[in-house]
Model the fold of this input.
Amino acid sequence: GNSVTQMEGPVTLSEEAFLTINCTYTATGYPSLFWYVQYPGEGLQLLLKATKADDKGSNKGFEATYRKETTSFHLEKGSVQVSDSAVYFCALSGSSSNTGKLIFGQGTTLQVKP
Amino acid sequence: NAGVTQTPKFQVLKTGQSMTLQCAQDMNHNSMYWYRQDPGMGLRLIYYSASEGTTDKGEVPNGYNVSRLNKREFSLRLESAAPSQTSVYFCASSAGTSGYEQYFGPGTRLTVT
Done:
């Protein structure tokens, strides 16, 4: 079945450091891929998405590229801020599904120190 | 624009009690979902409704029931709460199925003692 694996956290960085959070997936066909962010005490918000191979999603300085050859969708940001501290979830929606169900990774906690 | 709303925000139940979590969306979305979030496990799908009038089980449906009351509202019912149902519950909606992003509500934190 479909699955998503994220790097384990927590990830602790200093402000202005480079961020990478690894995400790999297992799926048949061509799933859509998403990154969601959850700030403390809040629900999940879509950060970015990509719906086909080689697509790059980007938002708020974050980027992720859909790599079918390595089944990966790693999240990157060139210079993190304290306000980026949150939990980040990688997710996929299967191409063969007609339900739109999302399969989530376990989440990666990011803490950015001033 | 309210988006997805959930009530209540917090709830404490005793084992065996019942309750209904309410969810509503004002985006005219066809599909709605209920997830639970537990530490270290990401979000797991409980039930979903791909369109008005249909509901289906997700990954962890045992102990829950749902009702798609109309296009806007999708409720989750715990008939006899158990401590294992202590969790944070999120409702979500999307315009369609494949490839569409989901929009999440703020969550309900439920504790069962």
